[in-house]
C-alpha cells in the first residue's frame, strides 16, 4: 500500500461515538489511517466491478456476436467469463474483511490469491477467444 | 481530512453502479430476445443496480461528514447482490444454451 504523503497528525478514524460506531476491528480499527480504509473500500468495489464486467462480457458474447463461433464454443467462452466473475464476486468480501482486520491489528496484508486467479482466468479466456476468432 | 479521498470513493461507488446498470441492460436484452431464465436474471441485476446506487449516495453523504469506514453489513450486501447477479447470469446462459 503506497501513499504519496505521510498521514497528517490526527487524520485517523477514531470512531463516531454518536452513531455507535466505535471504529472497531471489523471497521478498520481505531487509529487506522482513513486513507487506507477508503483505499480498501475502493479496491473492494473494483473487484465487484471486475465481476460485473465479466458478466457483461459473457452475456454479450452469447447474445451479441452469433457470428463468432457455433453455439457450443461460444457458450463455453461465455460461461467461463461468468464463472470467473462468480469466483471473484464471492471472494471480494472475505478479501475486504481480511484486509480490514490486518490493518486494525497492524499485521502484514494477507496474500492475494484473487490476482493470480483473475490473471490465469483472463489468459485462458483470451486464448480461447483467439482460437474462436481464428477458426471462425 | 482531505476531500479527494471521499470523492474518489464516491466515484468508485458510482462506477460500480454503472457497471451493474450495463449488466442489467444486457440481461434485459437477453430476456427480450431469448426469454427463459434471463427474465429472472434481469430483475436481480436491476435490484443490484438500485441498491449499489443508493448505497453509494448514502456513503457519499456520510463521507462528507467524516471518514467512517464502510460498515461490514453494507459491504456484505453489495457483495451478495453482485454474486447473485453473477449466478443468475450464469444460470441464464446455461439454461438458454440448453434450450430451456
Automatic annotation (TrEMBL), chain A:
The keyword Transmembrane helix applies. It is a multi-pass membrane protein. Keywords: Cell membrane, Membrane, Transmembrane, Transmembrane helix. This is DUF202 domain-containing protein. Residues 1-27 are annotated as: Disordered. It holds the Pfam family DUF202. The chain crosses the membrane at residues 44-64, 76-93, 113-135. InterPro entries: DUF202, IM_YidH-like. Residues 35-102 form the DUF202 domain. It is found in: Cell membrane. The lineage of its organism: Bacteria, Bacillati, Actinomycetota, Actinomycetes, Pseudonocardiales.
Amino acid at each position: 500500500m503506497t501513499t504519496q504523503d505521510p498521514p497528517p497528525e490526527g487524520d485517523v478514524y477514531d470512531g463516531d461515538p454518536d452513531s455507535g460506531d466505535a471504529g472497531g476491528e471489523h471497521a478498520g480499527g481505531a487509529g487506522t489511517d482513513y486513507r487506507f480504509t477508503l483505499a480498501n473500500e475502493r479496491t473492494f468495489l473494483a473487484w465487484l466491478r471486475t465481476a460485473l464486467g465479466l458478466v457483461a462480457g459473457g452475456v454479450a458474447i452469447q447474445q451479441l456476436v452469433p457470428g463468432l463461433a457455433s453455439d457450443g464454443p461460444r457458450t463455453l467462452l461465455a460461461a467461463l467469463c461468468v464463472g470467473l466473475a462468480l469466483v471473484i464476486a464471492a471472494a471480494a468480501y472475505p478479501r475486504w474483511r481480511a484486509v480490514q482486520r490486518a490493518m486494525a491489528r497492524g499485521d502484514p496484508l494477507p496474500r492475494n490469491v484473487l490476482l493470480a486467479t483473475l490473471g490465469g482466468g483472463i489468459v485462458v479466456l483470451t486464448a480461447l477467444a483467439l482460437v474462436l476468432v481464428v477458426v471462425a | 481530512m482531505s476531500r479527494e479521498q471521499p470523492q474518489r470513493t464516491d466515484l468508485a461507488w458510482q462506477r460500480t453502479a454503472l457497471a451493474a446498470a450495463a449488466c442489467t441492460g444486457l440481461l434485459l436484452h437477453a430476456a427480450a430476445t431469448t426469454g427463459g431464465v434471463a427474465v429472472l436474471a434481469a430483475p436481480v441485476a436491476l435490484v443490484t443496480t438500485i441498491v449499489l446506487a443508493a448505497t453509494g449516495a448514502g456513503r457519499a453523504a456520510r463521507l462528507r461528514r467524516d471518514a467512517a469506514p464502510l460498515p461490514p453489513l453494507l459491504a456484505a450486501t453489495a457483495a451478495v447482490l453482485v454474486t447473485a447477479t453473477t449466478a443468475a447470469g450464469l444460470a441464464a446462459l446455461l439454461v438458454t444454451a440448453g434450450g430451456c
